[in-house]
Amino acid sequence: MNDQGRGKLQEVHMHNRKLLEISGVNNVESFDSEEFLLKTELGHLTIRGQNLHIKNLNLEQGLVAIEGVVNSLSYLNPGSQPKTKGFIGKLFK
Predict the structure, then answer these.
(1) Torsions phi, psi of 86, nearest 5?
(2) pLDDT above 70 as % of the chain
(3) Which of 62, 55, 74, 43 is nearest to 15 (CA)?
């Protein structure tokens, strides 16, 4: 069994692909209307969709709520670097 995440908790709740509530969030690394990159207790989590925006953010409690149309959730492999587009990359999609 993999020891990754041992002793760490995270919950992900999705309601009709329109509202995503996540606990165990340490930081919001980057976000725009199509992609969020979160640093969580269990690694970096990428959320992709359309018209995404933050409904609620409380990093003291580690809670984030995101509204919009959610298309995918994926964790990055441990040790890999998050691929952020940067300001210039977002301008020239």
Answers:
(1) 80, 170
(2) 75
(3) 55
How does pLDDT run across 48-78, given as a tens digit for each residue?
999 999 999 999 999 999 999 999 999 987 6
Whether the CA torsion 11, 1, 46, 82 is positive or negative: it is positive
Cα–Cα distance measured from residue 50 to residue 78, given in angstroms and rounded to the nearest whole number: 27
| Residue carrying the six token digits 């199509």 | 34
Of 3, 1, 83, 79, the closest CA to residue 43 belongs to 79
**59-74 exposure pattern, b = at least 16 Cβ within 10 A, e = fewer:** eeebebbbbbebeebe
